[in-house]
Amino acid sequence: MRVSNTAIGLGLIVFAIAVLFYTRTFPTLERGYPGPSLFPNVLAVLFIIAGITLVAQGVRGRERLSKFDTSTITRSGLINILLVLGAVVFYIFLSDFLGFQITSFILLFGLMKWLRVSTRWGLVMACGMTLAIYFLFAKILLVPLPWGLWGW
Amino acid sequence: MMLEHIYTAISLIAQPYVLLVIAMSAFYGLFVGAIPGLTATMATALLVPVTFFMDTVPALAAIVTMEAMAIFAGDIPGALVRIPGTPSSAAYVGESYALTQKGRAGFVLGVDVTVAAIGGLIGAIILILLAPMLAEVAMKFTSFEYFWLACIGLSCAVLVTKGSLIKGMVSLLIGLFMTTVGVDITLGFPRFTFGVTDFLNGFNFIPAMIGMFGVSEVMRNVSSSDLSFKIVSVKTKKIFAGIGRTVRKYKLNVARSGIVGTFVGILPGAGADIAAWIAYALSKKFSKEPEKYGTGHIEGIVDAGTANNAALGGAWVPALVFGIPGASLTAIVIGVLFMKGLRPGPMIFQQTPEILYAVYVTFILANVILIPFGVMAIKAGNQMLRVPRNMLMPAILMFCIVGSFAINNTAFDVGIMLGTGVLAYFMEANDIPVAPAVLGLVLGRLLEDSFMVSMIKSEWDLTVFFHRPVRAILGGVTIILWSSPFIGVLRARWRRQ
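YS: structure for the whole thing
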């Protein structure tokens, strides 16, 4: 997913200005020396310099501001990416409720099915990977993976 | 004294448990390296949650072994299907594949594994000789010197990036900015936490690494339509026939590229991939037969294949001595050392020398066992390339999730992983390199803390940064590095006139 240099540059400038404003609420050291705000402010100024340079490069290269190059990614590729991100969000919100094993199985089987793995292989791999990860992390490394309502 | 340390280190390594860890990480490294799209850095990031639960010696041994194996194994798909397994093999895939088409895949991979082991050993020897000497110097450093060192490290990381310098700088700034989240050193003021208590300690490094190298890699892999590889069969019966002669013929190339590779590895920000490109370019420049390059000539492969493995040892030098990573991979190693309560720097050499020697011993051991393990991987090369990626990617994603969770047992870290993964994917898609951001993330705190502490010590007198000779030299180097791009532009303009 490519966007124009101009857009990146403008984004950085807006972000940096927001930082500059926000850090004004930070306390200062005694005798007015800059404290917690110094480093973020220096970075913000550098962000602005980099942003202006990128905008200048974009303008000089006659870039379209709204350039949104979709040729680098196919539609199905984009859907795949969104599903991967959705799967992580699904885990974050539902693992405490469903427990690790069920969440992991649903996530793995769902993604594999979507990526066109056959149902039989999908079931085998999703079960196998879930148990392998569970065994490694919960049993050997003793990580308290989420138990869920049913204690799995 | 030294013998005693070596003896202790060997006894630490020669435990059944540690040897098992080494063998398993060897297989892991070979597998990840041989699968295109999975990089050695990603393998390290995914290994960290597991090493988190190990003692320091097996944890570091696992990483050292894994990286040596992965960087070699990247050559396997390069030769078989013309796709580099890791970016470090990219410099010579064309050359390797041209030889494969002449029916010499076994020969190429045999040479690859041999020179990789030799290169790795050269890197290890330079690490062993150079690190203690530099540590002597580093003993005298104070917060002023560390400030300049961090500046030099970060500047190098930007200057060596391929492509746009400005985008390298943007990447660095992103990494540095991430370190400003959390409690600040001067007043203990919570910055950019927006009331979220999980942010008080700042960005958790390991979930961020897993996001940047694991999740973004999964995203990239699922976004491209399924690649099915056209598999070439490798004759592996007499894999070492003619290899001894080839390596002997190019022994000077091996020595040169071993040294060049190690020193490129020492440069912050430049890792095995850049080492391979530079060694390949030098090889062609000094070759007696430069016209053969690109047509399936082994000389360039010898050079680049030596250099990328040599770079691994080099990258550990600044990491161990100054706590400044030589590449993204050692940036993660520094994270691991911190997790183990070890502060990388000259004090390690005095307080826990046995750990250092254990790293040295593992480096030697890993490169010696690289040959038998590597041959096994060459024989299994075809099978590894047949592992379907549409099963592998969901599994890796699950591993990323659990790995991020395992460090602090919070779902918040999984969120960090997701956020940094999306960020890294977006950056790479727009030609903004990720490595400077990683270095910024590792060094940001050191940079800010050493600056603020120095300033408060000297009551805001900026000239103290140049007071003593070592400081002044380091400061001078930093200023030269910063002005070098401008000087380059001015010179180009002057020449045009």
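YS: worth flagging: Chain A touches chain B through 63 residues (CB under 8 Å).
IM: good catch. Also Helices of chain A lie at 5-22, 38-60, 75-98, 100-114, 119-140.
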